[in-house]
Design goal:
This protein is mostly helical. It is built from 2 helices and no strands. The chain is elongated.
Length: about 70
């Protein structure tokens, strides 16, 4: 299960990075409406990355019977 969470974590990170790059591109091209859309997608992808990361670390901790920090 940890491998599944790790894959999802990486997918959300890639989506966030791609959206950040597209946002910068649209800002350079002076298309602020499209850039704003990708900023929102970037924020959502970043939040999902952080949630998946927390979930994976929590699952690893529970699998190893480690106490909560």
């Amino acid at each position: 299960m940890s491998k599944f969470f790790r894959i999802l974590e990486i997918i959300w990170l890639v989506i966030a990075l791609v959206c950040a790059a597209i946002t910068v591109y649209f800002l350079i091209m002076k298309d602020t409406d499209s850039a704003l859309y990708f900023v929102f997608v970037f924020i959502i992808a970043s939040i999902m990355f952080l949630l998946r990361r927390y979930q994976r670390k929590n699952q690893d901790r529970l699998a190893n019977n480690e106490p909560r920090r």
